[in-house]
Amino acid sequence: MPVWFAYALTFIALGQVMVSFHQGPFDHLYLALAEYKEISENIEENEGGLDKFSKSYKTFGVNLFVDGGIYCKEWAPGAEAVFLTGDFSKYSKIASVFYFPECILKSLYFVLQLVIRNRSGEILYRISPWAKYVIREEGKVNYDWMHWEPPLPYLSRHPSPEKPKSLRIYESHVGIASPEGKIASYKNFTYNVLPRIKDLGYNCIQLMAIMEHAYYASFGYQITSFFAASSRYGTPDDLKELIDVAHSMGITVLLDVVHSHASKNSEDGLNKFDGTDSCFFHSGPKGMHRLWDSRLFDYSNWEVLRFLLSNLRSWIEEYSFDGFRFDGVTSMIYHNHGIGESFSGDYHEYFGLHVDEDALVYLMLANHMIKFLQPRCLTIAEEVSGMPALCCPVAEGGGGFDYRMAMAIPDKWIQIIKELKDEDWNMGNIVYTLTNRRHEEKYIAYAESHDQALVGDKTLAFRLMDAEMYTNMSVLSPLTPVIDRGIQLHKMIRLITHALGGEGYLNFMGNEFGHPEWLDFPRKGNNESYHYARRQFHLADEQHLRYRFLNAFDRDMNKLEERFGWLASPPGFVSEKHESNKVIAFERANLIFIFNFHPSKSYVDYRLGVETAGKYPFLLLLYLSEILSFNRLEYKCKLKGKNTFLFMQNKLTFYVDDHFKKMQLET
Ligand SMILES: *[C@@H]1O[C@H](CO)[C@@H](O)[C@H](O)[C@H]1NC(C)=O
Ligand SMILES: *[C@@H]1O[C@H](CO)[C@@H](O)[C@H](O)[C@H]1NC(C)=O
Ligand SMILES: *[C@@H]1O[C@H](CO)[C@@H](O)[C@H](O)[C@H]1NC(C)=O
Ligand SMILES: CC(=O)N[C@H]1CO[C@H](CO)[C@@H](O)[C@@H]1O
């Protein structure tokens, strides 16, 4: 049967919804909530509700309908005329656009292009903002928009896992996820990397650089096609398979979503889509991020809301993502994008006219919609200022996120390692950084993320061990003081961050085994080299290299958490932060953690107070010794009712004295 073809091009120029309030510094939450309610009501009235509104990805752009017709719909308020062209019209310009040879339509794979005539009569070629698949042919500069409709699309077989109580996130980038100096594929990730992640005890992956970005070296943060899964790693079906296989392993999959800004490309990006400099963005300087050199969305615009909300929904419904890590939330919610700001915690810094209410309301709508659609979904805010209530429910005027990134922690570790001698580490300051969080809001703790791995910065392992990583990591050569200290501190920093720093934990791929060197994507400045755009997983598998100890530690740490669930427990109770002894001790989830950060001192009969009074006879912590591979862990003791978890640079021994309700440390 011939494919019946319908051609419908709709221009939408709905009135922009503008709500503005005069506000005092502390009315902010109330006003954001009022604006949120007003916009929700408007959506209800004009669009038949958020559910229908956010389904627009099924009608905008080019879509195949059940009647076999292909429909096209775009919002281009600044255009004088919009046309569709492509393979089927042999790219003859505007006049023949309406001629569609049947043979091409039947193929289900064809190249499309929008032709926009702007008000000065200029003819511009564009990719639909709603394009679901874009590819770049070898040697070409720009992407092409492909209609991709496989006859037998991938069907997911595994249900999504339950929302995890303890979130242990493996931050991943598909393209670099192999030791080869080239772009790895979705399939490589599915079959080579997912099993590693599962084995390491992570229950969540956060996928970076999925939304299509023409510039690979942007690390996925300069998005050109918001609805398209990057084709440089494979087809949309390959990504669906990746997620399905992750689900089969009980792994939750989050998308690192970039709604804070957009690439300034216009031929294959969103910029100047309708020929004007506004459309999806603010016009003029307000629409440019001066550090990122990219475009900024106008969150007060009705069609921008439709676009972004539908975008989130399409990732959930088309690909089965289980939630999002929202990138650049600080940049979204402040008019100055947080550039050059430091936040001390004074409430005036968070509320007032410098806050972008429109962006806050967008985030509230997004979080409400995501959880309404899929209660299993979770969201994380990358937010550095500490905006209060961002992780409180929308109904209470909060931002509606589940978690925020504890961004002060990695900065603190870097500062300590860079600036302080071991004798000068401040225990009180470490504890403060790891425990300073907003009551009732959940944090993802991390010692380092992709940020520290990028060229120009340094990972913890590289800061600690540097050049010796090239020469002294073999077990066949003697353990040098630098490697010894580096390995111990790398483990201790990870564990104390994991156990005390938050309600979730995150690691960037490769850092579980102290990946050496840095990440650098091919770009002009490095002769387009892929040499540093890879992860050398084989280092962790080599029996003769000490990376495997770091790797095994990561697995044990996660498995231990899985067993005792400290991330899902109330924050730790710190019983000791001793400056001259350099000892930190705390209790969480019925475990006692004891860290000795002293570079040279060991302790015998160390006394510690414990939170709960009672008898604490010795018991052997044998099972810990079985599952833990710390080389300096004293795992010989167990306190009744408490599993004691000791970790140290140097030896620390303890025993319990029940008269004083104190615990002492013994070999
Ligand atoms: C039409 O597009 C051209 C090329 O981008 C631009 O120089 C011109 O200002 C646009 N005209 C209007 C009215 O936006
Ligand atoms: C990805 O997998 C393919 C086929 O399994 C293999 O040929 C290729 O070398 C792998 N590439 C990387 C970068 O691992
Ligand atoms: C890039 O290649 C050129 C010519 O081969 C060489 O002179 C230059 O040093 C290289 N730059 C880098 C960063 O490797
Ligand atoms: C024991 C050992 O192999 N030590 C080596 C560590 O690395 C330095 C160079 O960085 C060598 O000089 C040492 O011989």
TrEMBL record:
Its EC top class is transferase
Q: Name one GO molecular function term.
A: cation binding
Q: Which InterPro entries match?
A: A-amylase/branching_C, Branching_enzy, GH, GH13_cat_dom, Glyco_hydro_b, Ig-like_fold, Ig_E-set
Task: Quote the EC number.
Answer: 2.4.1.18
Q: Which domain of life is it from?
A: Eukaryota
Residues forming the catalytic site:
D327, E382
- SMART domains on file: Aamy
One Pfam family of this chain: Alpha-amylase
Annotated Glycosyl hydrolase family 13 catalytic domain ranges read 180-538
Q: Which reaction does it catalyse?
A: Transfers a segment of a (1->4)-alpha-D-glucan chain to a primary hydroxy group in a similar glucan chain
* Pathway(s) per entry: Glycan biosynthesis
Query: Is the keyword Plastid assigned to this protein?
Result: no
GO CC, alphabetical: cytosol
A Gene Ontology biological process term: glycogen biosynthetic process
Keyword check for Disulfide bond: no
Entry similarity comment: Belongs to the glycosyl hydrolase 13 family. GlgB subfamily.
Q: What is this protein called?
A: 1,4-alpha-glucan branching enzyme
Organism, scientific name: Crocodylus porosus
